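Title: Comparing notes on inverse folding

I've been comparing how different people in this forum approach sequence design from structure. To keep things fair, I'm posting one structure and asking everyone to reply with a full sequence. Here's the target:
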């Protein structure tokens, strides 16, 4: 097939690489003026591209036909290569040499109607005129391969016979003769040449088989004999198959030369025939009808080169390898030797020039596969993979490779790896001492020295030959080493790296990828003596290219980052040290450039320090990294922006895993940053704080204290910023005044609330970090100090946080401290419980201080506090339970006066939960074996008050120690209610000014709390004394519970009532107590007399106090007050006296201490009655209908009583009190009757109390 394009001139000669680089893919714009007057009309690259596309489609159709003939024909028709008619298809099959003959046979032998018509047209194309029958049959069978199916053969032979008779009408009587003879000849061909036939026919057999086939007459015997001899001596076979078989046989022939020559002649003959067909166009499908043109466009080169490159590469490589090294003839003086050396030198130069040009062409047209193949071939020709056999021509190849790298580096891409490996090997070879043993390390294990093995002289060269060969290698190697160390070679290598600055962004990335890969091979190739040549070169070219734009440098550093991560973690100290020092040099130079606020380039640059520190365990490397960072901070702190993050990451890791010296060194840098550069770490403030938090986990107390001091300074700096911001916007008429203590001095400053970014990016990391220290630190002192520091910051600066920020602090900072408290399976530690209690008390103080500014508007914080108190009480620990109630007392006493109904509801619900969980209900459901009816009515009443428990169920597990713990905590809970209900507000710490002790220490706060609680308890435990009175009666001092809504106040009373009823039921259940005693868990009969006495005393005292404050109630509260206060007051107080009288009547039935406790209760009732304003005559009761005269008499009596008061006598009560306390006044006769029965009591304290009571009764009788 002739080619339509002839390139008469090389258009690349007028092109430059720079032109191609700038033009990119728009190669069609590049044209070259050619010499002569060649017409350029029609020399359009698009035109040739279209032709090429058509050719590709044509070849695709041929391939499809060769596999599936029917589909192939349809495809070619569809694409317009064949007209859809039978003669055209037949002509295509006949004249297309690339079609497979077997596929043609399958197609024309098919039984399809269209295929049969094509077969007829196909056979009609053959002209058998004047051709002998056997020759005609041979011609016919050369156009296709006979299919194996008999029906297909039948159709083909039938048409052949018809065509032969048509062109030779006088040879046979009819076509049947030709048809039969054709089959007979085919059978003869098989019989004579098939290896499977054991007995072959002879001439007589063949003649006999063909008797009477010529219209019942015989063909001449001589004619048939000639046919027999023709077939037997010359097999009918496809010439193409014969040529292929000849080639295969020639390649594997083991016969004599004559046989090989015959096979060779057959193959050559077929090649000549095919070439002749292509040149003459007799069998070609595409005829040479194109115009011969001069190529004026560079694009024509690419497809032509794509076709020619592979054989060209094979030819150039083979010619280079076969060429004799001219250096071998250096000592020759003969003319022929010199001429031979010159020819070989020219051949070597031409091969290298051809390879270089091929690389240049493939690079220009971005033919990556071809370019890579040529560069790889050139690299192999350098001989660096078998150094011991290198010759001067290999050195020339090395020079050529270096030249390619210098001139075509823009296009090398991944082939930089080959170039750099060659340079690395050259550098390694320069380290070999001259005259010494040649090391083979790094060169695929090929040894430079060859020693004879074995004793046979027939298979090995003699010693003199070995000596001569070794001498030649030494000379060649010495010359090669001189070449490597020559100034030209060194300059060429240096120029490669220096010219990297001229590479484009993509090209420089490829260079760095390759040089990093080669450097890693150097480092890892020899563990004992690793090489760092390429590592030095990396630093060099990185320094060259640091001036690139940020986008390109970022891509470069992504490669270098991974590289330094790997090299810096090398097990060889020299390698890792050099890597870190190189990294420091690059960082110092890069940090000299300013970085805008939102960029992250410095962070990426310094991140390898953090990675190496984390993954390299060497302490020396850690110290080197810290010293490098110190140097960078000292010299470039003002330019560092995002680079702070990896630095603080290194310091933070040092704080946790470093030794003492490293920790001190790192912390000194952190302190230096705060002192000298704090204003420039704003963008990395969170990382700085996290770094300080990590130092708080260290075991060096001095370092920990210093870290916490810095955290406090950071918080103070933030507060000062908020103050300065407020000062800039100060408008005193619209801003709230807060009392802020600064350095121990009060200062009134207007503070504005922080915005969201400031809170989450500055404040929150500080408080969250301290919370982490409190939770995770293993040192008790550190946890406690961190806790105090945390609340100092919150107390001192919390007023600038909005409500939603406090919710975040509560959920994320404070509550995790108590996370283990919520775990029922958590095994408590003394340290943890101490932290819980300390944190809870500090939270209560925080709540008190920040109530007016923050917590007045939401109750989540209060709910959390009460939940924590409940959890403390629920633990099976007397200490935790008591401290929980103490914290509840602290919370209420400091904030109770500010609580509204919603908050009192929360407190009341918590109190009810505490009373319920500390009441040992489990003891009342034990199966004692005694019917429940015998336990008495009181037990039933106690069971009714208790939570629902299935008595019918199996007896629950009883833990006596847990019951004792509950009782102890329950006593404290009763005492808390007593304090809240009976102690004057004036005895508690003032809560009106929660900021009065803003900077007081935690120890002072705790001491003050303990003293105030102790004072309140001492006053309450001494019993109610006489209260101050005024002209209108006793002055009722304010209590906490007085400010509480009525319903909530009554629920507090109900807690006391249930407590008393429960312990009373237990104490009265002798069978249950005896059962517990007999169970062996206690050494004596159990009782709850102390709890009963305290509960009843508190309950009755509170009832009297509430009645004195609220009386019978007013309006809608009257009925509630009577039911909740007056009725139980009368019932319980009378029952106390009656029970005491009953004990006196049977003194032997009750223990002495029980009788004494009951006497004290009786005294309490008598004195509480005296303190209650119910002492007025019956006749003096004033109603709303009383006349003016009665009012005047009352005024006179009031004046007389005032006179009596001045003389120390008891005063009377007002008219309002008379109306207020009528309910209890009506019960005085019953109390008097009970008192009469106490006259015979011998106890002095009872007689004194009775005497006072009877004295008031006597005065009342006198008034009446």
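Reply #1:
Here's my take.
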């Amino acid at each position: 097939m002739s080619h339509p394009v002839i390139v008469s001139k090389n258009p690349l000669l007028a092109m430059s690489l720079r032109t191609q680089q700038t033009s990119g893919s728009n190669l069609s714009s590049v044209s070259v003026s050619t010499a002569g007057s060649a017409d350029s009309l029609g020399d359009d690259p698009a035109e040739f591209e279209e032709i090429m596309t058509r050719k590709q489609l044509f070849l695709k159709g041929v391939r499809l036909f060769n596999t599936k003939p029917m589909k192939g024909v349809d495809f070619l028709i569809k694409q317009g290569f064949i007209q859809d008619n039978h003669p055209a298809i037949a002509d295509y099959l006949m004249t297309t040499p690339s079609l497979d003959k077997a596929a043609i046979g399958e197609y024309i032998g098919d039984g399809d109607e269209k295929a049969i018509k094509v077969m007829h047209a196909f056979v009609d194309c053959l002209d058998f005129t004047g051709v002998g029958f056997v020759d005609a049959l041979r011609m016919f069978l050369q156009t296709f391969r006979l299919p194996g199916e008999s029906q297909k053969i039948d159709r083909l032979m039938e048409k052949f016979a018809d065509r032969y008779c048509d062109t030779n009408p006088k040879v046979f009587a009819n076509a049947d003769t030709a048809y039969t003879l054709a089959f007979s000849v085919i059978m003869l061909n098989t019989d004579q040449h098939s290896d499977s036939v054991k007995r072959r026919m002879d001439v007589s057999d063949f003649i006999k088989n063909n008797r009477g086939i010529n219209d019942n007459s015989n063909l001449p015997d001589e004619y048939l004999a000639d046919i027999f001899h023709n077939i037997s001596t010359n097999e009918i076979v496809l010439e193409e198959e014969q040529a292929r078989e000849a080639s295969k046989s020639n390649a594997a022939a083991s016969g004599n030369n004559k046989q090989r020559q015959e096979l060779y002649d057959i193959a050559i003959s077929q090649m000549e025939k095919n070439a002749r067909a292509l040149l003459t166009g007799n069998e070609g499908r595409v005829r040479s009808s194109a115009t011969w043109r001069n190529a004026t466009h560079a694009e024509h080169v690419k497809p032509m080169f794509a076709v020619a490159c592979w054989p060209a590469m094979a030819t150039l490589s083979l010619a280079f390898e076969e060429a004799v090294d001219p250096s071998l003839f250096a000592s020759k003086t003969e003319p022929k030797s010199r001429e031979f050396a010159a020819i070989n030198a020219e051949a070597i130069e031409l091969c290298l020039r051809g390879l270089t040009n091929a690389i240049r062409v493939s690079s220009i047209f971005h033919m990556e596969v071809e370019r890579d193949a040529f560069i790889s071939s050139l690299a192999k020709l350098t001989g660096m993979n078998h150094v011991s056999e290198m010759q001067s021509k290999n050195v020339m190849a090395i020079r050529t490779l270096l030249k390619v790298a210098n001139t075509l580096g823009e296009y090398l891409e991944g082939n930089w790896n080959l170039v750099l490996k060659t340079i690395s090997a050259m550098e390694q070879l320069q380290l070999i001492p001259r005259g010494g043993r040649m090391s083979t390390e790094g060169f695929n294990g090929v040894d430079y020295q060859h020693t004879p093995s074995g004793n046979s002289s027939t298979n090995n060269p003699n010693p003199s030959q070995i000596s001569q060969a070794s001498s030649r290698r030494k000379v060649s190697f010495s010359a090669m080493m001189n070449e490597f160390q020559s100034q030209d070679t060194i300059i060429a290598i240096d120029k490669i790296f220096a010219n990297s600055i001229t590479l484009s962004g993509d090209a420089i990335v490829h260079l760095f990828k390759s040089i990093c890969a080669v450097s890693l091979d150097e480092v890892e190739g020899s563990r004992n003596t690793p090489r760092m040549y390429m590592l030095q070169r990396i630093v060099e070219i990185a320094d060259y290219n640091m001036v690139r734009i940020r986008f390109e440098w970022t891509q470069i550093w992504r490669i270098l980052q991974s590289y330094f991560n790997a090299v810096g973690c090398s097990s060889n100290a020299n390698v890792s040290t050099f890597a870190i020092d190189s990294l420091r040099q690059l960082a110092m130079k890069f940090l000299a450039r300013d970085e805008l606020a939102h960029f992250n380039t410095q962070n990426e640059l310094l991140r390898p320090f953090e990675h190496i520190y984390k993954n390299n365990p060497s302490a020396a490397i850690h110290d080197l990294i810290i010293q490098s960072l110190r140097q960078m901070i000292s010299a470039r702190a003002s330019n560092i922006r995002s680079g702070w993050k990896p630095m603080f990451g290194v310091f933070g890791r040092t704080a946790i895993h470093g030794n003492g010296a490293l920790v001190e060194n790192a912390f000194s840098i952190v302190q230096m940053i705060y002192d000298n550069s704090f204003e420039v770490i704003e963008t990395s403030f969170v990382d700085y704080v996290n770094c300080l938090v990590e130092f708080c986990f260290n075991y060096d107390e001095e370092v920990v204290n210093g870290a916490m001091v810095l955290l406090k300074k950071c918080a103070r700096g933030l507060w000062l910023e908020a103050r300065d911001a407020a000062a800039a916007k100060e408008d005193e008429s619209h801003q709230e005044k807060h009392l802020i203590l600064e350095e121990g001095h009060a200062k009134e400053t207007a503070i504005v609330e922080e915005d969201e970014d400031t809170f989450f990016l500055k404040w929150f990391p500080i408080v969250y970090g301290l919370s982490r220290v409190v939770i995770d630190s293993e040192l008790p002192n550190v946890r406690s100090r961190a806790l105090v520091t945390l609340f100092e910051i919150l107390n001192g600066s919390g007023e600038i946080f909005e409500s939603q920020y406090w919710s975040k602090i509560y959920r994320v900072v404070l509550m995790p401290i108590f996370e283990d408290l919520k775990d029922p399976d958590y095994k408590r530690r003394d340290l943890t419980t101490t932290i819980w209690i300390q944190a809870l008390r500090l939270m209560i103080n925080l709540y008190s201080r920040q109530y007016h500014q923050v917590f007045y508007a939401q109750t989540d914080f209060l709910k959390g506090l009460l939940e924590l108190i409940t959890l403390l009480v629920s633990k099976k620990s007397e200490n935790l339970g008591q401290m929980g109630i103490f914290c509840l007392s602290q919370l209420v006493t400091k904030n109770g006066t500010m609580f509204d109904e919603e908050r009192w509801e929360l407190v009341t619900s918590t109190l009810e939960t505490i009373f319920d969980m500390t009441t040992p209900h489990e003891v009342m459901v034990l199966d004692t074996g005694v019917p429940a009816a015998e336990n008495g009515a009181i037990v039933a009443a106690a069971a009714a008050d208790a939570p629902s428990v299935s008595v019918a169920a199996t007896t629950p597990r009883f833990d006596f120690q847990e019951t004792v713990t509950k009782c102890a905590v329950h006593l404290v809970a009763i005492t808390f209610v007593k304090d809240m209900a009976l102690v004057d507000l004036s005895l508690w710490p003032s809560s009106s000014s929660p900021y009065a002790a803003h900077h007081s220490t935690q120890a002072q706060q705790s001491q003050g709390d303990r003293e105030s609680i102790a004072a309140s308890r001492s006053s309450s435990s001494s019993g109610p004394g006489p209260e101050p009175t005024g002209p209108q009666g006793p002055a009722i001092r304010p209590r906490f519970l007085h400010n509480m809504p009525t319903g909530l106040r009554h629920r507090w009373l109900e807690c006391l009532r249930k407590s008393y009823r429960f312990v009373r039921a237990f104490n009265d259940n002798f069978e249950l107590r005896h059962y517990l005693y007999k169970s062996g868990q206690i050494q004596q009969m159990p009782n709850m007399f102390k709890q009963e006495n305290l509960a009843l005393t508190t309950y009755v005292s509170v009832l009297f106090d509430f009645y004195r404050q609220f009386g019978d109630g007013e309006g809608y509260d009257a009925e509630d007050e009577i039911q909740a206060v007056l009725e139980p007051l009368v019932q319980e107080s009378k029952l106390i006296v009656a029970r005491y009288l009953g004990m006196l009547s049977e003194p032997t039935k009750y223990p002495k201490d029980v009788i004494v406790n009951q006497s004290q209760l009786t005294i309490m009732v008598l004195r509480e009655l005296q303190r209650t304003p119910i002492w007025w005559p019956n006749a003096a009761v004033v109603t709303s209908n009383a006349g003016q005269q009665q009012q005047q008499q009352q005024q006179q009596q009031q004046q007389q009583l005032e006179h009596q008061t001045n003389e120390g006598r008891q005063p009377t009560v007002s008219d309002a009190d008379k109306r207020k306390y009528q309910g209890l006044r009506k019960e005085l006769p019953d109390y008097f009757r009970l008192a009469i029965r106490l006259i015979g009591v011998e106890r002095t304290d009872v007689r004194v109390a009775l005497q006072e009571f009877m004295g008031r009764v006597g005065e009342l009788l006198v008034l009446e």
